[in-house]
């Protein structure tokens, strides 16, 4: 079947738009069915104004690589509406994961004896905190697995998997039978649930930190990075408020019998809704644009071993300070019966709200003056304050409130800016794996064990020894900050 020569396709397509200079050049109306249009000339230079343009020399014989379909490419976040949707979707899931993680420490004094009946009081709490620390064993593994997955398959896929695991672990704890019902299988299931939570939370942090850093507007990575701990601390507040309400409304017998299960079951239910929200996320534009050749995982980690070591060392002081004041201290005060449980939990809420108020301020400050001064403030301030603040513990409610709020002044700058620093240390192809692994190992080794060490050493009348431990770790992180370059203006793809 023949067609008019005027209907032939041009040899060149102008990348700035279709040639509409002369409408009379259009093909005449014909009764014959139209033939499919000829493919564009793919040897022309790519459109440099198109964010996902692929150079022709990378295309080879196949005009479009099979792993990237142009119709599926997400658009970069450039307007106000997608910006807030991104923050809401990632923040809600991050808050829930932190909630799932924190409720174990918050409610451990209420359920410890149901899983470890041979121990009572402080020994039972130590057993529960040991299970709490077991979850941290899986965090480096979760960070490695989900970080690798995020660097290979996308940040969005890793975010979906991490929330599913963490919420499933929370639900399992909420419905887990006690030792009286199934014997030693009860603490076994408790450990299994903590391992699932640890795997999910270990994968959440590198994925969400990388996703937000790559989605942030220019010059605002500090403020956007602060949102990770804003949402995470909000999750901790939610767990603490539930504990405070439960302690005030229910009797001790009711809390021990079934009240402690409510927040775990609630976390599993809300997790299902959060999973739906994350399924609607688009992929990070930096990940889609990345055309660097992929390298084997261990080769990439070895190539960037200095950055991995920095991520590990920068985390030391901040993670032990975080778990000391937000998890360990409230649990210890409740277990020692120095202050009523509800009062301790409301004081924790007050301190957490104070921290949230400071986070965006420190994030904005780091965008203006750089990351290093803000990190130095965090580590040197925590080192200077640890002995005076530890001396306030065990004296009364207002001393506890003062200690926690003062601690937040120096914890907030670390929490605000460290997510952005992690992302700025690595290139796109290894960013989630490298930043997540170093931080997760430090958190597992030092953060997860901090509540246990604090309770054990304080109960053995060695509180000064634990304060010295925190001091050394804070100074070690400060030394690393002094030796690292400024990363505020580092390109991240």
Your description of this structure?
The chain has helices at about 80-115, 120-155, 155-175, 180, 185-215, 220-250, 250-260, 260-280, 285-290, 295-305, 305-335, 340-370, 370-390, 395-425, 430-445, 450-460, 465-485. With about 500 residues, it is mostly helical. It starts with about 80 loop residues before the first helix and ends in a 10-residue tail after the last helix. About 70% of the residues lie in helices and about 0% in strands. The longest helix has about 35 residues, at about 80-115. α2 (about 120-155) packs antiparallel against α15, α3 (about 155-175) packs antiparallel against α8 (about 260-280) and α6 packs antiparallel against α14 (about 395-425).
Number of helices: 17
How would a textbook summarize the main sheet?
A: none
Kindly provide the radius of gyration, computed on alpha-carbon positions and rounded to a whole number of angstroms: 27 Å
Structural class: mainly alpha
What pattern of helices and strands is seen along the backbone?
Answer: HHHHHHHHHHHHHHHHH
Overall number of strands: 0
Proportion in β-strands: under 5%
Helical fraction: over 70%
Distance between the termini: 50 Å
Which stretches are low in confidence, meaning pLDDT under 50 for 5 or more residues running? 1-31, 42-82
Shape: globular
Average pLDDT over all residues: 80
């Amino acid at each position: 079947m023949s067609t008019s020569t005027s209907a032939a396709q041009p040899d060149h397509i102008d990348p700035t738009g279709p040639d509409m200079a002369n409408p009379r050049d259009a093909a005449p109306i014909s009764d014959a069915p139209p033939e499919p249009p000829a493919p564009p000339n793919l040897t022309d230079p790519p459109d440099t104004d198109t964010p996902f343009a692929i150079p022709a020399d990378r295309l080879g014989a196949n005009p479009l690589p099979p792993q990237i379909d142009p119709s599926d490419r997400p658009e970069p976040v450039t307007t106000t509406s997608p910006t807030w949707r991104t923050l809401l979707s990632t923040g809600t899931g991050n808050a829930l994961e932190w909630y799932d993680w924190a409720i174990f420490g918050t409610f451990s004094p209420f359920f410890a004896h149901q899983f470890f009946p041979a121990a009572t009081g402080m020994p039972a709490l130590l057993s529960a905190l040991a299970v709490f620390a077991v979850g941290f064993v899986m965090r480096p593994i979760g960070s490695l697995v989900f970080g690798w997955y995020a660097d290979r398959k996308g940040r969005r896929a890793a975010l979906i998997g991490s929330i599913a695991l963490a919420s499933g672990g929370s639900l399992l704890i909420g419905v887990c039978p006690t030792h009286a019902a199934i014997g030693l299988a009860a603490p076994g299931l408790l450990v299994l649930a903590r391992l699932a939570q640890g795997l999910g939370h270990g994968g959440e942090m590198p994925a969400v930190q990388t996703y937000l850093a790559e989605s942030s507007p220019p010059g605002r990575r500090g403020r956007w990075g602060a949102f990770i701990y804003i949402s995470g601390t909000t999750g901790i507040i939610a767990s603490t408020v539930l504990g405070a309400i439960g302690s005030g409304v229910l009797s001790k017998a009711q809390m021990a019998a079934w009240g402690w299960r409510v927040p775990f079951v609630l976390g599993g239910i809300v997790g299902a809704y959060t999973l739906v929200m994350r399924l609607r996320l688009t992929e990070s534009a930096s990940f889609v644009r990345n055309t660097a050749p992929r390298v084997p995982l261990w080769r990439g980690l070895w190539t960037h071993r200095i950055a991995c070591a920095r991520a590990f060392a920068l985390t030391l002081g901040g993670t032990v300070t975080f778990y000391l004041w937000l998890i360990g201290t409230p649990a210890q005060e409740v277990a020692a019966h120095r202050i009523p449980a509800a009062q301790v939990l409301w004081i924790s809420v007050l301190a957490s709200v104070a921290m949230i108020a400071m986070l965006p301020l420190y994030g904005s400050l780091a965008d203006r003056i750089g990351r290093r001064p803000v990190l130095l403030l965090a580590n040197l301030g925590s080192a200077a304050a640890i002995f005076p603040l530890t001396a306030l513990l065990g004296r009364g409610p207002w001393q506890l409130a003062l200690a926690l709020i003062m601690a937040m002044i120096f914890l907030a700058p670390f929490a605000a800016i460290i997510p952005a620093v992690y992302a700025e240390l690595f290139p796109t192809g290894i960013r989630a794996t490298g930043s997540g692994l170093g931080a997760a190992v430090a958190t597992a080794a030092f953060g997860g064990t901090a509540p246990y060490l604090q309770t054990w050493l304080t109960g053995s009348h060695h509180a000064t020894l634990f304060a010295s431990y925190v001091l050394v770790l804070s100074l070690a992180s400060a030394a690393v900050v002094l030796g690292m370059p400024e990363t505020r203006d580092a390109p991240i793809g």
